[in-house]
UniProtKB/TrEMBL annotation:
InterPro entries the UniProt entry points to: AB_hydrolase_fold, Polyketide_trans_af380
The protein's name in its UniProt record: Lysophospholipase
Source organism of the structure: Jiangella ureilytica
Domain of life: Bacteria
Amino acid sequence: MTTFPVVFESNGALLAGRVHRSGDDLLERQPAVLVTGSWLTVKEQMADHYAAALAARGYTAITFDFAGWGESGGEPRQLELPSRKIADIAAAARFAASLSFVRPGGVGHVGVCASAQYALAAIAAGAPIASFGSVAGWFHDTASVAPFYGGVDGVRDRLERAAVALGVLRRDGSVVTVPAYEAGNDRAGMFLEMDYYANPARGAVPAWRNEMAEASWLPWLTFDGLSAADAVSVPTLFVHSSGCVFPDHIEALRGRLGGPAEVAWGEGTQIDFYDQPDQVAFAVEALDAHLTATLGGPRPSA
C-alpha cells in the first residue's frame, strides 16, 4: 500500500488530503474514489479506514480534511458548516480528476454518515462525481433531527447558544467551542454513549481535536439533507441497516433520485459501520460491485 499527502484549494483555503493506492506505480491509471466521514471528524478516522480497504481492491482512494478541520486551512476552525463542506467536496472531485494516475471517465464518492448528505448536495449542485455510495448515510432535516436533541425545545436551546457564539465570532473572531463528543454533556455535539469517539483504538485518534464550534448548531440543525435528491441522477448505492439512523429516509431518497439507485441492507448499528470488521467488509464488498459497474472498476470489463 502506498499513501502520500496532497494539497488542493477550495475557496481560497488549502485542503490537506491523502492518496491511498495499492502498489507504488504512479504510471498506472486507477479509478478514483473520494472518501469522507461523519460530521466533526477528520480524515484519519472512518474516511481513512474505508480508503485503505478500497485501495486494497485497486482504487485510488482520496481522503481530505474539510476547511477548518484537521490539517487543512480555513477559518473559523471546528465549525460544522454544510455549505463549506459541500464546496470542498466539489473542489476535491475536480482535483481528483486532474491527477495523471487517475483513470479518465469519472470520479466516485463514498460518504460515511453525515458527509453522505453533503455529497448528495454537491452532486446536485454540479460536482463532477460520476458514482455515489453512501455508508450508514445520515440525511436529515430539522423535523427528523430534532428528536435527537430533545425535540423543539432542545433545538431552540441550541440555536440560542449558537447565536451567542456567532455574536462572539463576529465581534472579535473568537471561536466558542464545546466538546465534539462527551457522554452525558448536553452541550456537546454528541452526548450519547458512543465507544467509537471514546476509544483511542477506534475513533479517538491523536489527529482528532475533540471540539466543536458552538455556532455549528445554526447550520447543522437547519440543514436540509434530503431536498437535493430530486436533482441527482448519478448511479447511487446506499449501504444501510435498520439499526442505522433514518432507515426510512433511505428508501424515500431512493425513490426520488433521477438515476439508478440500489440499497444494500446489512446488519449492525450506525457506529458499527464506521470501523467494525463485519460491517466494513459488507459495505466494501457492496461498494466494490457498485463502483465496478459504474466507473469500470479496477478489474477489466468482461
